[in-house]
């Protein structure tokens, strides 16, 4: 509990439609340095909106969000995002897509080449550097999205249901890849999902949000040691208990 | 799906595309043309020769017109007006399309004018263009082609710029794009297929503009050949410029399709 706080969400209120729809109100949340924090909540509870606010892609109506002591006003180069819709440029080849963030950051060419190669290898896409996204399966496209975010070597990785649109098998493969990559170099990660298993497998803690207006219902510590794989987490003796607890919180049932 | 399976899958997909039934496609295309020509050839003698001549007679007329040099002269004149007009229309159309597609004020300023001009049949403006350019030289015919071509380019470009995927705009913002890089990375590439489709439509309209302008303004070029030989009931010779105009359309659209493959290779999956 001594780890310093990296992202601090303080009394944040967000409304849509000229104030008629309150997404969340007075929300407080702290993401610790180096932790993987899962945010779990029912569909439409505002998880994605919260993540967009953390990155400064959406404004907030009250309160403040602070990353490393600096209040968020717009996207920062220290933070990178992985999108549910992958967000690859169809006209860029794999290596150009991965290089995108680095080019925008005006990183020297040699560094770009070295990093692009490293992260393409890390996500298992060696040999596909010159492919266009359309030639790749959904899972491979999201590997590109992940490599693009990792390539800028951000302090914080924001992931918005990154595997939500993949089939179950591909999803598990990519969850394992993410766990491996996190293991190699743990970095602060906020992982949005509506899958309870995924939230537990990926996160050191799981924040369970209520439905709109979203508030933090509870924060569940995942006491399952790393290194993990999805299979090892599910087989773990703590898993069933954690899943039931999260499930009860999400489904709004009183504790048994 | 494991990586290896995915790789195999992708490779197989690429192979399928390369081995696509190109040969049989072409056989059917050419065969269909051959059938039409044959039927025409055999049925034509039963008709009044003042109305229908067989393809063989048209082929002879084609050679005749080449030998007198009339066809080359007319084609050169027509091509000058067509290429000049199309080029002007692409420059103006893309520029106005980008500006009006991106900035609301520009859209509001231009939209009523564009809608009004687009609603008027362009043919109705041909005499006006003649007067403006005093019926002199290539200028009025270039202007006529440009008028016919500009709207599809403009409207398509505008749509392309407006239809940029919101998700990609957000990605660009999330990675801290500059306005200039936003254009080169996202907006222009995403508008490119729309622009090219606009140019394809413009080619068809531009040929109409070219011929009509030659009927009413210049009395030169392929349009004049059609009038000249139509007036003396030389249907065989009249058909020659008609076929050349059709060939122009096919060639120019082919060039655009080739360009599409060069500047927008990610679109090849559609074909």
Structural account:
- The complex is a heterodimer of chains A (256) and B (271).
- Chain A has two domains: 1-75 and 156-256, P-loop containing nucleotide triphosphate hydrolases (Rossmann fold, 3-Layer(aba) Sandwich), CATH 3.40.50; 79-153, no CATH class.
- Chain A has eight helices and ten strands.
- Chain A has helices at residues 47-54, 94-104, 109-122, 138-151, 168-184, 196-202, 230-235, 239-250, and strands at residues 5-16, 21-32, 36-40, 62-67, 70-71, 79-82, 156-160, 188-193, 205-209, 216-221.
- Chain A has a six-stranded mixed beta sheet, sandwiched between helices. In chain A, strands 2-1-4-5 form a four-stranded antiparallel beta sheet, covered by helices on one side.
- In chain A, β9 (205-209) and β10 form a beta hairpin.
- In chain A, α3 (109-122) crosses α4.
- The relative contact order of chain A is 0.17.
- With 271 residues, chain B is mainly alpha-helical.
- Chain B has two domains: 24-53; 58-270, Orthogonal Bundle (MetI-like fold).
- In chain B, 82% of the residues lie in helices and 0% in strands.
- Chain B is built from eleven helices and no strands.
- In chain B, α7 runs antiparallel to α9.
- The longest helix of chain B has 40 residues, at 179-218.
- Chain B starts with a helix and ends in an 8-residue tail after the last helix.
- The mean pLDDT of chain B is 89.
- Chains A and B meet through α2 and α5 of A and α1, α8 and α9 of B.
């Amino acid at each position: 509990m001594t780890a310093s706080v990296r992202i601090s969400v303080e009394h944040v209120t967000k409304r849509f439609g000229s104030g008629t729809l309150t997404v969340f109100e007075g929300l407080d949340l702290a993401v610790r340095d180096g932790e993987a924090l899962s945010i779990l909540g029912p569909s439409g509870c505002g998880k994605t909106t919260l993540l967009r606010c953390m990155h400064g892609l959406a404004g907030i109506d009250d309160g403040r969000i602070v990353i490393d002591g600096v209040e968020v006003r717009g996207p920062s180069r220290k933070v990178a995002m992985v999108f549910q819709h992958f967000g690859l440029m169809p006209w860029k080849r794999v290596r150009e897509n991965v290089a995108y963030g680095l080019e925008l950051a005006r990183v020297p060419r040699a560094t770009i080449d070295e990093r692009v190669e490293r992260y393409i290898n890390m996500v298992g896409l060696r040999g596909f550097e010159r492919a266009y996204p359309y030639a790749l399966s959904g899972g491979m496209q999201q590997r590109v999205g992940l490599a693009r975010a990792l390539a800028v070597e951000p302090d914080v990785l924001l992931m918005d249901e990154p595997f939500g649109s993949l089939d179950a098998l591909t999803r598990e493969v990519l969850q394992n890849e993410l766990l491996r990559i996190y293991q190699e170099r743990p970095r602060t990660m906020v992982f949005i999902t509506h899958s309870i298993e995924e939230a537990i497998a990926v996160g050191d803690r799981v924040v369970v949000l209520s439905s709109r207006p979203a508030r933090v219902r509870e924060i569940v510590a995942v006491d399952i040691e790393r290194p993990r794989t999805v299979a090892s987490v599910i087989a773990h003796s703590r898993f069933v208990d954690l899943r039931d607890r999260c499930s009860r919180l999400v489904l709004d049932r009183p504790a048994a | 799906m494991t990586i290896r399976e995915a790789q195999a899958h992708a490779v197989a997909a690429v192979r399928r595309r390369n081995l696509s039934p190109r040969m049989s496609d072409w056989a059917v295309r050419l065969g269909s043309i051959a059938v039409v020509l044959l039927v025409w050839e055999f049925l034509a003698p039963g008709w009044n020769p003042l109305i229908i001549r067989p393809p063989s007679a048209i082929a002879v007329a084609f050679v005749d017109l080449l030998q007198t040099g009339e066809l080359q002269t007319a084609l050169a004149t027509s091509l000058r007006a067509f290429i000049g007009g199309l080029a002007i229309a692409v420059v103006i159309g893309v520029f106005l399309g980008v500006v009006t597609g991106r900035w609301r004020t520009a859209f509001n300023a231009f939209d009523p004018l564009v809608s009004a001009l687009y609603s008027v049949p362009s043919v109705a403006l041909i005499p006006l263009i003649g007067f403006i350019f005093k019926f002199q030289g290539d200028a009025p015919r270039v202007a006529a082609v440009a008028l016919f071509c500009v709207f599809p380019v403009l409207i398509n470009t505008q749509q392309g710029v407006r239809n940029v995927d919101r998700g990609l705009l957000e990605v660009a913002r999330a990675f801290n794009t500059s306005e200039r890089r936003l254009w080169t990375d996202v907006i222009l590439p995403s508008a490119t297929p729309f622009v090219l489709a606009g140019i394809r439509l413009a080619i068809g309209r531009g040929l109409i503009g070219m011929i009509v302008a030659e009927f009413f303004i210049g009395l030169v070029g392929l349009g004049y050949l059609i009038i000249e030989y139509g007036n003396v009931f030389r249907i065989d010779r009249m058909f020659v410029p008609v076929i050349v105009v059709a060939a122009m359309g096919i060639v120019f659209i082919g060039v655009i399709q080739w360009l599409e493959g060069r500047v927008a290779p990610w679109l090849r999956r559609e074909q």
